[in-house]
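From the pipeline queue, job 12 of 40. The input is one protein chain; the requested action is below.

Action: predict structure.
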Amino acid sequence: MGLFKRNPFGHILFLKKWLIRILGTITHRRFRGFNELQIEGSEIIKNLPDTNVLFISNHQTYFADVVSMFHVFNASLSGRVDSIKNVGYLWNPKLNIYYVAARETMKAGLLPKILAYVGSVSIERTWRSEGQDINRQVKMSDISNIGKALDDGWVITFPQGTTTPFKPIRKGTAHIIKRYKPIVVPIVIDGFRRSFDKKGLRIKKKNILQSFEIKEPLEIDYDNETTADIVKKIEYAIEQHPSFLKVIPQKELEVLEELNKKREW
């Protein structure tokens, strides 16, 4: 790899590799030390193609969710089965992993800007800006950038667009799936909301069992299924359909009630 070789977004791969190594080493104990990340289904990662894979997941914090995925994906590709033991897997990380994030979030401070360099595909949210509800047109350049990232590698997205649980799935994710026809891999995470603050930067509580389940790729008829059909599949796949409210553990319900009282919804 040339010293100044860049990815399609102009990021220097040598610099990106060192950022992943350093940030990964710093954050490793958040998932294997202070808290324990229980992983299931990592064998699926090893069998995926190198490009055009879209990971869809529920969302509990701004940054910890994505960081955990960088750990799990690279550990899995290094031959670890459902484990992130020994952070050495970050010495040669997969450099074409991207994640979709709100542009305003990734510009809010030095650390988010560094995290953006690691792999953010920043977009302008069409429904919310600076804490206010809005309604604006989708920027086609944002859609094209997601397509560019899929063409180059793997993309992580949180189709609800918010850390609030059981919010509707944004139709934009379904449009992207129909347009670019990626392999769609669902991930369901839990415990992050209890472990970290809302941004996912500060450890709020230790000795929390965090779960990370990777599911089999969705079967999608890209040409004949409607966006509504795909949205419904996503809801069930990442366990954010209202029917899942009935099976939330009592502790989780208590946390959600507390969030509601604090008006963090």
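Job complete. The longest helix spans residues 13-31.
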